[in-house]
Amino acid sequence: MAMDVGSDSDSSPLLSLPKKKENNCTIVKFAVAAIAVGVLAIFLFFSVVGNSKNGEGGQCNLFNGRWIPHPSGPSYNNGSCNFIDDADNCLKNGRPNTEYLYWRWKPYHCDLPPLDPEKFMNTMQDKSWALIGDSILRNQMMSMICLLSKVEEPVEVYHDEAYKSRSFYFPSHNLTIATIWAPFLVKSVTDEDDDGKAKNEIQLYVDVLEKEWEANYHKYDFVLISGGQWFTKTTVVWENNQVIGCHNCREKNLTELGLEYPYRKGPRVGLQLHQQI
Ligand SMILES: *[C@@H]1O[C@H](CO)[C@@H](O)[C@H](O)[C@H]1NC(C)=O
Ligand SMILES: *[C@@H]1O[C@H](CO)[C@@H](O)[C@H](O)[C@H]1NC(C)=O
Ligand SMILES: *[C@@H]1O[C@H](CO)[C@@H](O)[C@H](O)[C@H]1NC(C)=O
């Protein structure tokens, strides 16, 4: 069992947030989390096979970099990958521009080589991965599935009713890659419909791990977590079975907790569980 989020949540790149409460930073944090997940999979792989080219002093901070033009474009597209969901298929749905496809992430002090799907699959023989988080993370998983499907077509072995939690299996490599739907990482109760329209505030239980995570984490060799965007929603925050405050509740006489407290808490609760192993 490995979990690449570090033992101290404050020092983890995925969880590092500015100390100040600044709501307008949300999008940035969220973007950072999304990028982090994308590169983390590759990073994990390269740290396993020891193939990353470190910069001077052996320092390679994958989270410190910028997007640079990438004229050769992505290694899969809407025609070559059979696993792009219709709702996510921008080109099929008529998006007119394609410039957004021609960028790649460049850490300042090292190079991030493109994923070699063959090598990845061979290294991950008999292994299983879970990506636990929101729909952005699920998109990242589907992208990884597209990259890997060039070597072997996976079989979708599980999906829940809404296709939010899914599991793909690559038979000849005995490799499983799954996503577990846990947009807050911790337990949340909401009566949102599938379009995300809430009838009431979301009730967020910051000291109770999302049950799918808690029930299934032991099945996986690698667990990757990510979240962000959902924390901007209106949420009533519970801890120790009582309401401790709220985020964004204008009409209620509740302490405004901001985003940061629940955002830090969820991964901590998860790490505590994993450290018990
Ligand atoms: C891929 O995108 C092109 C537009 O660039 C579109 O014409 C085509 O139908 C799409 N193919 C699939 C399989 O989605
Ligand atoms: C597949 O991998 C699992 C470990 O994840 C192992 O227990 C099992 O024996 C493997 N199956 C085959 C057919 O090699
Ligand atoms: C809001 O809550 C505070 C402390 O719980 C209380 O003192 C105050 O009277 C409440 N205000 C209203 C309008 O209910």
Automatic annotation (TrEMBL):
InterPro entries: TBL (IPR029962), TBL_C (IPR026057), TBL_N (IPR025846). Residues 112-268 form the Trichome birefringence-like C-terminal domain. Pfam families: PC-Esterase (PF13839), PMR5N (PF14416). Coiled coil: none annotated. It is a single-pass type II membrane protein. The chain crosses the membrane at residues 27-49. It comes from Iris pallida (Sweet iris). Residues 59-111 form the Trichome birefringence-like N-terminal domain. Keywords: Golgi apparatus, Membrane, Signal-anchor, Transmembrane, Transmembrane helix. This is Protein trichome birefringence-like 26. GO terms for molecular function: xylan O-acetyltransferase activity. The keyword Membrane applies. It is found in: Golgi apparatus membrane. Belongs to the PC-esterase family. TBL subfamily. One of its GO terms (cellular component) is Golgi membrane. It comes from the Eukaryota.
